[in-house]
Amino acid sequence: MNIFIENPYAKFYKLGISIFFLVLVTLFALFGLDNVSDPTFLAFVAIVGGYMAINIGANDVANNVGPAVGSKALTLTSAVIIAIIFEASGALIAGGDVVSTIKKGIIDTKFIVDSSIFIWVMFSALLGGAIWLNLATALGSPVSTTHSIVGGIMGAAIASSGWELVNWGMMTKIAASWVISPVLGGLIAALFLYIIQDRIFHKEDTLEAAKKIVPILIAIMSCAFATYLAIKGIKKLIKLDITIAVAIGVVVGIITYVIAKPLIKKASQQLSDKKDDINTLFTLPLIFAAALLCFAHGANDVANAIGPVAAIYEAIQSGVIAKKAAIPLWIMAIGALGIAVGLATYGSKLIKTVGSEITDLDQGRAWSIAMSSAIVVIIASWLGLPVSSTHIAIGGVFGVGYLRYYLYQRYENEIEGVKAHHVKSINKKLTKWNNKLTELETEVEKEQFLNKIALKEQSLAAMQTGGKVDFTKKEQKKLDKINKRQYVRKGMLAKIITAWLVTVPISAFIGGIIYFICAALFL
């Protein structure tokens, strides 16, 4: 059964599920915890933490499974189930016992003299970041949850203690990631897609080429993802030097090649040399990639929801402003389950956006995007560059789209073909009408034909000057079909970049406003 209920009442079901989850969180915080000094306030904080987790699930997870859904390697329902399992597993298994309370070290807590101020800064940041994520999801814009919480902390901190509280050097690095992440993601994804096109689909015997190249690509993927998980996925369980992580990746890659080569050879016996058939060889690796990306995301980004909650809990219990705080199991569970609820209820919108509304994806293209997500994180960790996993994935989607555009410029050629047909059709009509004109006897009939001729001549002039063209219904239908196959929907590019640029400022503004309100009421 599809969990996305497509009927007029679906939005109420989704809202009801989310509210039910938050009610359970409230009841547990009020009645399930012992020796808590302020259970009512803590329950309110837990609700906001759960709300943030829901929004992370609704927005950020789409980057990991969207390409797999867009390429039809996974159905929407199966992608959500896989993502829920691996996001929650990553959070609960590899989320760690301690979390950094000040995300990315963007503020210096020595300027905060009172633990109550710190508590309200964290609360305002959490709510500010969650509200912006909710708005971005409603608008269909995939944004960085890390940048959302960073903006919230920055705005609330400035509202509480002034501009000097912010580490502007770190904020500059974060701003740099707005360019670094998508550019690297796009370049790496485009590189892998070019290899697939050049070494497989541009060969005379594509199936034979696939037998040789696909096992190598899968081995490279295994190497990259083993290294990726060692660096990012399990870093809170065990810290590994990047050299050791790469060595582990190489060993895994070699083993994978030995296993994959005979399997690919066997699978290819059932395939033709058509592109759609050969693309199916990437389906299983793509599903594995989506699952591993979800695991790593759950292990790392659950902290965006539970970090401020853990910080507030620590400050309430001990009165200490801690840069790192222990994570009780119940707080981790709120983060993990909240992400799952958000993904199951509202995640489909952004999954569709990432998977099909930017560019058309098949399994090879989606696999290239998944590869870029892993490899860019490895490169960034090695060079010490700040990157956003959201920006990497979306950059990868655009990189694939633009490479397709440069490799195959059919789109413009097809549009020009329709226009040429339109011009030919008009000229044919003009010739016919001019011939008819000489046969007419009355002035009224002549005037009617002259008017028709003038209108068609105006249509031709409009085409030459870039004005509006009155295509026939048949021509318009063909144009609509061509437009659906655009390699990159440029409107989506502008929309997403705008959302990225305003994420930190808007979440900071909301966080600052919430802090001012809370300070006026409670401090």
Could you please describe the fold and organization of this structure?
The protein is an all-alpha fold and 523 residues long. The protein has 2 domains: 10-408 and 487-518, no CATH class; 410-484. The chain contains 19 helices and 2 strands. It has helices at 10-31, 39-59, 62-70, 76-94, 115-138, 145-161, 168-201, 206-233, 242-268, 275-279, 283-301, 303-318, 329-356, 363-383, 389-407, 410-437, 443-464, 473-484, 490-522; strands at 98-100, 324-326. Strands 1-2 form a two-stranded antiparallel sheet. The chain is globular. The two termini are 50 Å apart. Residues 1-5 have low confidence and may be disordered.
From the N-terminal CA to the C-terminal CA, the straight-line distance is 50 Å
Query: How much helicity do the residues have?
Result: over 70%
Structural class designation: mainly alpha
Quaternary structure type:
single chain
Low-confidence stretches: 1-5
Averaging pLDDT over every residue, what do you get? 86
Q: Write the H/E string, N to C.
A: HHHHEHHHHHHHHEHHHHHHH
The major sheet is characterized as: 2 strands, antiparallel
Count of domain modules? 2
Main attributes of the structure:
523 residues, mainly alpha, 2 domains, two-stranded antiparallel ribbon, 19 helices, 1% strand
Brief summary:
The chain has 523 residues and is mostly helical.
